[in-house]
């Protein structure tokens, strides 16, 4: 069950939403308007996943037995956005070991590949079956296993939609394949095969997640239910930016999952609510929601209940904002720009860009000539929010994440932080489709080892840079202020950036 703290003040939208909850429980695709109904009609399978996903349990039990028989002790999940965020939260909540690979940074891939692959199960997770990051990671690990004399059939589990290119390829290779409900969108898939398959493999009793979700969902159509109260509050202008803090709870990482769910679902048509994932519970700039009883605003309940709760909240919030919660037009745009750059670079040499300013190990790419890194960071604090986008290794370059709180405290502007390319499947939609009130700081590096992608004409490093510059183009084309900071050396460059931010 879900209980709320601090959400009792009646809002005008309560009665409006009370009329919608019963329709949502019956998967009424017309809730979000005529233009959204076609997409909604094939994206509402998540509503009854607490019941329908029980059909997966025998298959997952069999799969787990297969994995134990083969002696798998390490589990690597290759997936982006909705395919990886929920399993990562599940693993952290149940204190199980799962390594999530949601990057094309070659140093992060090499680091993950240091596991003893003889005892490793690699989960390849992609709804479309054509996600470039996941396809590249699969090719990399297939070759690595074969080079070691290992049979990929004993080390791979593939989760995808039925009929996807990934399903066809993987079945042809004799790999274990679990197909998900195709009527569930990626970011609403926590309780589908995408969330439950990795959970079962690492030893989580997924029936508990489903039981908790089902018990919670049965309360959502009651008058003034928890989902009604939360959605109504998030639709208020004061919650346009909302902090989420989970570090003092048992649900570490749920803020990142909520960030994708809400930002990608609502950030379009110039509207949206932007979650701000916090590493400390403090902000005078926006309200903060926590997941323990210690906070003024808190959402309490087990993980399965939280998953279905926030999915309902997001659907109802999108109704109030009059946006289609199930499309993501600008995510596709970034993919197209990435592919265009890769095609150009395959025919010509990769373009060499000249920085307008260099400070130590940091090269600055900007339309403006200033005199220091601190000046540049200050210059790009002119909009309502600042998005820091780091195309680096979120394992070994983790200290860079501290840049968010430093910039926010020094500029007094709402600041978010995202690891690229994973944020492209999350807040990347909000950046380009939401309110035009952001300024963007992009961090890249030229310190990229050559790591081949089998079967491709480009390396992981080239792919990573194409993703960064493709998104840069998408933001620039809209006239948004964007600053690219390129680290010639990761360690010293990060130290310089953190120091420069303190001097704003």
Description of the molecule:
This protein has 504 residues and is α/β, with parallel strands linked by helices. The model has no long low-confidence stretch (mean pLDDT 95). It has 20 helices and 16 strands. Helix 6 (85-93) runs parallel beside helix 10 and helix 17 (403-411) packs parallel to helix 20 (490-502). Helix content is 41%, strand content 15%. The strands form 3 sheets. The chain has a 6-stranded mixed beta sheet with strand order 11-12-16-15-13-14, with helices on both faces. Helix 6 (85-93) links the parallel strand 2 and strand 3. The longest helix is centred in the middle third of the chain and has 19 residues, at 303-321.
What is the topology?
Elements: E1 3-5, H1 13-18, H2 21-25, H3 34-40, H4 49-52, H5 57-69, E2 74-78, H6 85-93, E3 99-101, H7 106-112, E4 120-126, H8 132-147, E5 156-160, H9 165-172, E6 176-179, H10 193-201, H11 206-217, H12 226-234, E7 241-245, H13 254-266, E8 274-277, E9 288-290, E10 297-300, H14 303-321, H15 329-347, E11 357-359, E12 362-365, H16 373-379, E13 385-390, H17 403-411, E14 414-419, H18 427-433, E15 438-445, H19 460-476, E16 482-487, H20 490-502
Parallel strand pairs: 2-3, 2-4, 4-5, 5-6, 7-8, 7-9, 9-10, 13-14, 13-15, 15-16
Antiparallel strand pairs: 1-10, 11-12, 12-16
Helix pairs in contact: 5-10, 6-10, 11-14, 12-14, 13-14, 13-18, 15-19, 16-20, 17-20
């Amino acid at each position: 069950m879900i209980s709320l703290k601090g959400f009792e003040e009646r809002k005008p939208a309560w009665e409006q939403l009370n009329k919608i909850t019963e329709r949502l429980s019956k998967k009424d695709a017309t809730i979000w308007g005529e233009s959204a109904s076609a997409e909604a009609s094939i994206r509402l399978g998540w509503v009854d996943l607490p019941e329908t996903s029980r059909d997966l349990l025998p298959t997952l039990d069999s799969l787990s037995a297969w994995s134990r028989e083969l002696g798998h002790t390490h589990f690597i999940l290759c997936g982006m956005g909705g395919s990886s965020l929920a399993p990562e939260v599940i693993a952290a909540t149940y204190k199980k070991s799962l390594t999530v690979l949601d990057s094309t940074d070659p140093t992060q891939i090499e680091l993950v590949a240091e596991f003893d692959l003889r005892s490793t199960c690699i989960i390849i997770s992609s709804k479309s079956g054509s996600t470039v990051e996941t396809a590249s990671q699969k090719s990399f690990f297939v070759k690595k296993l074969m080079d070691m004399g290992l049979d990929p059939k004993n080390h791979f589990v593939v989760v995808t939609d039925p009929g996807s290119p990934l399903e066809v390829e993987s079945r042809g290779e004799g790999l274990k394949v679990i197909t998900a409900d195709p009527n569930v969108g990626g970011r609403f898939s926590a309780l589908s095969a995408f969330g439950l398959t990795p959970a079962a493999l690492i030893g989580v009793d997924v029936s508990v997640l489903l039981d908790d979700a089902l018990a919670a969902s049965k309360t959502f159509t009651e008058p003034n239910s928890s989902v009604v109260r939360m959605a109504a509050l998030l639709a208020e202008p004061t919650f346009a930016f909302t902090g989420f803090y989970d570090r003092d709870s048992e649900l570490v990482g749920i803020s990142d999952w909520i960030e994708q769910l809400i930002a990608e679902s609502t950030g379009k048509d110039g509207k949206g609510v932007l979650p701000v994932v916090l590493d400390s519970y403090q902000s005078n700039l926006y309200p903060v929601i926590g997941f323990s009883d210690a906070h003024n605003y808190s959402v309490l309940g087990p993980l399965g209940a939280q998953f279905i709760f926030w999915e309902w909240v997001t659907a109802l919030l999108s109704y109030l904002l009059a946006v289609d919660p199930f499309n993501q037009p600008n995510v596709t745009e970034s993919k197209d720009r990435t592919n265009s750059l890769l095609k150009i670079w395959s025919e010509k040499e990769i373009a060499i860009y000249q920085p307008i300013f260099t400070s130590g190990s940091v090269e600055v790419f900007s339309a403006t000539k200033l005199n220091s890194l601190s000046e540049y960071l200050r210059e790009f604090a002119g909009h309502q929010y600042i998005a820091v986008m780091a195309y680096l290794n979120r394992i070994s370059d983790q200290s860079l994440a501290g840049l968010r709180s430093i910039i926010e405290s020094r500029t007094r502007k709402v600041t978010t932080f995202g690891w690229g390319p994973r944020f492209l499947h999350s807040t990347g939609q909000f950046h380009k489709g939401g309110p035009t009130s952001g300024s963007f700081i992009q961090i890249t590096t030229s310190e990229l080892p050559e790591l081949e992608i089998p079967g491709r004409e480009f390396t992981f490093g080239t792919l990573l840079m194409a993703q960064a510059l493709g998104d840069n183009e998408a933001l620039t084309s809209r006239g948004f202020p964007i600053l690219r900071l390129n680290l010639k050396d990761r360690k010293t460059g990060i130290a310089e950036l953190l120091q420069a931010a303190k001097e704003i």
